[in-house]
Design goal:
197 residues, mainly beta, Jelly Rolls, 5-stranded antiparallel beta sheet, 1 helix
């Protein structure tokens, strides 16, 4: 006999909020609603709040505009240090990216993470992960899963970068919005189904 069991009344399926399955975001000011607060621009970066571009089309919200005019082979960014500790598990990391039209092989927009043993994003680097964007003329969601397996990571620096290739010339402009970094939730027991034979 095959029985479908639920940890709670089946009504929970209709009452459960969709937010239950979303990752808790560890980023401060991920949506750039009014400014670039909590984000720091690197040397040479031209960074500004832009109220005319945002991924959700919300009036009054905006995005981070990061421009690189530093010449071939350069990279500039805005970044934020996220202190640990981090619970072991799989984390959702990424951002929405929109690049201004550029000639081929000019450069790219990059969303990256640098992992540190320290709690203040300094000292020894443990790891580096990134995803380059192809979001020309349209908002593109760039994401990568990050697996944290233990307590060795003390902090993570999240960077939103514009990078000029060696043969590229600037300026290179990219918009960033909806930055996310958080532990991917497991499905609550009351929403899981079990087959019993």
């Amino acid at each position: 006999m095959r029985i479908l069991l639920f940890g709670c009344f089946s009504a929970i399926l209709t009452l459960a909020s969709p937010e239950i399955l979303q990752a808790q975001n560890l980023i401060v000011n991920p949506d750039f609603d009014v400014d670039l607060g909590a984000w720091t621009a690197s040397a040479g970066a031209i960074a500004a709040f832009d109220s005319t571009h945002n991924v959700v089309g919300q009036i009054g919200s905006g995005s981070a505009l990061v421009t690189n005019d530093q010449g071939p082979g350069s990279a500039v960014d805005i970044s934020q240090c996220v202190p640990g500790p981090f619970v072991p598990g799989t984390y959702d990391f990424g951002a929405w990216v929109l690049m201004d039209p550029v000639p081929p092989l000019t450069g790219s927009a990059r969303v990256s993470m640098t992992f540190y043993a320290s709690s203040d994003c300094s000292g020894s680097v443990l790891d580096y992960r990134f995803v380059d964007s192809s979001g020309l003329n349209a908002w593109t969601l760039e994401t990568i899963p990050i697996v944290m397996s233990g307590g060795s990571v003390g902090s993570v620096r999240v960077r939103l970068e514009t990078r000029l290739f060696t043969g590229g010339s600037g300026p290179l402009t990219a918009y960033f919005d909806g930055v996310r970094f958080g532990l991917m939730p497991t499905v609550p027991v009351e929403l899981q189904s079990f087959d019993v034979d």
